[in-house]
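The protein record quoted in full:
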Amino acid sequence: AKAWLTKPTYVTKLTFSIENEKGSSLGAYSGLASMASIDLGGGGGSMFSSDNIMSIMTSRKMIVSTLLSPITVDNKKTTLIEYYLAFNHLNDKWNEKPKLAKLKFPLNLKTNLLTREQDSLLTNIHSSIIKTVISINKPDKKLSLIEASCTSRNELFSKVFLETLSTQVTDFYIGIKTKRQKENVTILQNK
């Protein structure tokens, strides 16, 4: 009888590998290049080690960026945070509180333009999401594989949230790597 009363949960999983985690295949050349202020991108202690990627994926910056991203529901575009609030019926509870009743997260809202109320709510939702909705771990400590999962009572949210989060982290990674390579080119051109 309990199975009939339990609401279903939907789990989306994503497994990926971190590039070059065990150090550079360039070995000693990396040390020589660093003496010339050139980053070959493969040195130890990388910002993009699995532990760091796991922390980046659960960071407030990445979660908030993901929540402010668009989602199409019933042919209407909205933000993931608006959708999350709606299917969890969180904004229904706010009708008695005027400040909260007016709280919206429109499309294309930039984090630097958040009101204090929006920012506070996103902080609380971030905390809730990293405790109950997403899980980031290494299934095997010897490998550089990371498994990310998103569990919620809404199938579309689980899928889109994890896909969008992985895109946010990938874009962040590419942005940092591209910036480093541009700096290296500039250094080489000026030598």
Summary: Residues 62 and 137 are 16 Å apart (CA to CA). The chain has eight helices and five strands.
